[in-house]
Every structure is written in C-alpha cells, then in structure tokens.
Amino acid sequence: MSLLLSYLDSPRPNQNFVLLQSSVSQSSLPLLRHFIAHNESVEKHLFCFLHPSSSLVKNTQSNVQIHEYLDHIPGYKDSWLDPCLEVSKIIENVPSSHPIEVILDSVDTLLTDNGSISDTYKFLRSLMTLITARSKQSKLILHLTTPNKLLPLLLSTAFSPTLIQCIAHPPVLFTHLATEYMTPPPPLTPDAKFWGIFIPISERGRDTEALVFGQEGEGSGGQEEMVVEVLVRGGSDASGRRKAVERFLESWDIENSLPLDLSKMKSLASIWRRKIVAEEAAPDPTQNVSFNLHLTPSQQESRARVPLPYAHEGLPPAQPAPGAILYDPDSADDIDDDDPDEDLDI
Questions:
Q1: Is residue 326 one of the residues assigned to a domain?
Q2: What pTM value is reported for the model?
Q3: Same domain, 41 and 168
Q4: Nearest to 141, CA basis, from 282, 263, 36, 23
Q5: pLDDT digit string (tens) for 11-55?
Q6: Which of 33, 261, 317, 345 is found 20 to 30 A from 142 (Cα to Cα)?
Q7: Quick one: DSSP state of residue 93?
Q8: Do both 233 and 206 map to the same domain?
C-alpha cells in the first residue's frame, strides 16, 4: 500500500495540512486530481483560482463543492469582491461537526490577486485555524508552484505543527543522479547518502529544467510517470509512536492516477537493470583457479587445534610502570655533584 495514502486515510496521525508543490519541470496536478477524487465520504470544497475545475474533477462527485474564481481579477470588475472573505464565509457556514477538506488551487494566483504576502499569509493562517478546530479528518490542501515567497512561511511550525509536503520531481532527475553521481534512489543507496546528495541538487530548479527541456530548449517535459518527494512532520508509525520528520519517495503513474512501486517505473528501468547486470557480472574469485582454496573437514579440525601464539594469553595485564624522567647528559654538559651554593652562608 502507498505510504502517502496511508497517512491521508488514517485519522491517527491527525494530519490537517497538505502542501502540494509543482515546478516548471514537473507539475503535481495529477496528485491534486487524485486527492480530489479520493475519500468520497468527506465533504470537499474546491476553490479554483488558476485551473478550471473541468481539468481537476473528471467525474461529477456529490461530495465536491466547486467554487470558480478564475474571472475574479482585481481591476477588471467594478463589483469585484475579495475572494479571501468569500472563502472564509463559505467555510464558516459549514457545520463544525462535519469533516471537510478545503482545496485551494493555487496559492500563487491568490498571492498575485492580493498583492501582499502578509495579508495572504494571515488569510491562510485563519483558514488553517478553522480547519484544526474541526474533526481530525478535516484537511487544508494547498497547491503552489515554486519558487514562491510564501513557501517558507507555510512550512514553518507556526503555521501548522503537522505537515504532509509533496514535491513533484521528473524521473530524469533520478537517472541523472544514478549516472553522474552513482547515487540511485533507495534502497539501492543508503538513505543518509541519497538525501545528502539529492536535496541540494533538487533545490536547484534551473538544473532540473535543463535536464527536462535541454540546454537549448529542445526536449519535452511530458512524462507518463513522476516521483513525489514526501515529507511528513508530526506523524506517527504503525505502533502509534510519534515521529518528528519522515522523508520518503513515492512513484506515481500519471495516466492511471495511482501510486506504484519505485522499481516498477518504466522511466527508471535502466537504474534497476544496471543493478542486476552489476550483480550478475561480479565474478567469484574462488572459481576457475588451478588450485583448491577450500578446506576439507579434517583440515578444518586440524587448523582449529593449532594453538595461537599469543604471548600474554591467560595472564593478567601488566601494571604500568611509574612515571620517571630519564636524562642522558651530553658531552658538553657541566655535570657537578657539588652544591654550587655551598660557599654562601644561608
């Protein structure tokens, strides 16, 4: 089962805040579509500021309330109303006993319309307060595109102590790491080594864009698969024990909108194939030699009876000698045993 979906489905971790990050090289909209279609038992309010609802909701779902704000552009309407006030009123009118999911697409457009980082953050923080006051299943799901000036504020514990952060990455980034840095994704590489190399490289967005689109603009960013970097803060494991931060990779089938095993990705097949070839190519040094390197049972028994030449075997450790200063006088030293001050009347 998908580890990401287990965090979303289980009420135990009490995760109220989900942040989806897109970039120029890879969009997280497939993940957003899955979140909208997922868990039909919860009432959902989708606020569209950037993408039309028809591109996010494929089938009409009775539990999804759609609120379109694509035509709410400041300065183009005399009767323009602040969408932040409208969103707050809609959520406040929902009975507090009902678990809900509030989905905003996207924070970038909302910030552009408001024109103020502080005002936009205050609105999102008030929205987060309304969500946390409800049942454990209620969630606030935000979608944004990096780089974004609001991102550090949204990631802080002051905004929400718990967090599920999903960052979409193109598969070519992982093949590049495996080829140039000899660092394939876990479990082929230890977690500490992989994340130490992956995080600083993935944060350089222009380098990833060059891998996807090419140095001169050639190439294509379209993919049938993507890899999602998931960071969970304030979650808990199967035993209920609290965990500070957990980071893992989740592969995603864009066409079928389903998670899949990382080793089953077609775009990363060369990495796993290279591992199998390396294991098969490793020769056994004891094979095809002109002499026998193995011992018979009688030889092993005779070898075990040979006493080991340990000088201090069975003896207590020697006591260290007391400290002393040893001085070997040089030929030019004036060594006189007489007292040099014997002529003084002291």
A1: no
A2: 0.75
A3: no
A4: 36
A5: 545 688 999 999 988 999 999 998 898 888 889 999 999 999 989
A6: 261
A7: T
A8: yes
Whether 303 contacts 295, CB under 8 Å: yes
Within-domain flag for 174: yes
- Please state, in angstroms and rounded to a whole number, the distance separating the CA atoms of residues 247 and 277: 29
Partners of 47 in beta bridges? 67, 104
> Which of the given ranges, 4-18, 140-154, 284-298, has the highest pLDDT on average?
140-154
Task: Note if the bond before 135 is cis, omega within 30 degrees.
Answer: no
Q: Which of 161, 195, 224 is the last residue of a domain?
A: 161
Structure tokens at 73: 């552009």
Q: How many CB atoms lie within 10 A of CB 296?
A: 9
Q: Poorest-confidence range of 32-46, 66-80, 152-166, 222-236?
A: 66-80
Is residue 46 a contact partner of residue 36, using CB atoms and an 8 Å limit? yes
- 201 shares its domain with 107: no
128-134's contacts with Cβ under 8 Å and 24+ in sequence apart are 128/16, 128/17, 128/159, 128/160, 130/88, 130/91, 130/92, 131/16, 131/17, 131/91, 131/100, 131/102, 132/16, 132/160, 133/96, 134/96, 134/98, 134/99, 134/100
Q: Which residues contact 36 (CB under 8 A, 6 or more apart)?
A: 44, 46, 56, 57, 61, 64, 103
Which residue range(s) make up the domain with 80?
Answer: 17-161
Please tell me whether residues 90 and 7 are part of one structural domain: no
Please report, to the nearest 10 degrees, the dihedral formed by the alpha carbons of residues 189, 194, 195, 197 taken in order.
Answer: 180
Q: Do 248 and 149 sit in the same domain of this protein?
A: no
Q: Angle at Cα 8 formed by Cα 55 and Cα 61, nearest 5°? A: 40
> What does the pLDDT look like over 153-199, one tens digit per residue?
999 999 999 899 999 999 999 999 999 999 999 989 999 999 999 99
Tell me if the bond preceding 147 is cis, omega within 30° of 0: yes
Q: Are residues 8 and 31 in the same domain?
A: no
Residue 169 dihedral angles phi and psi, to the nearest 5°: -130, 145
Same domain, 9 and 55: no
In a domain, 2, yes or no: yes
The answer to whether the CB of 17 falls within 8 A of the CB of 242 is: no
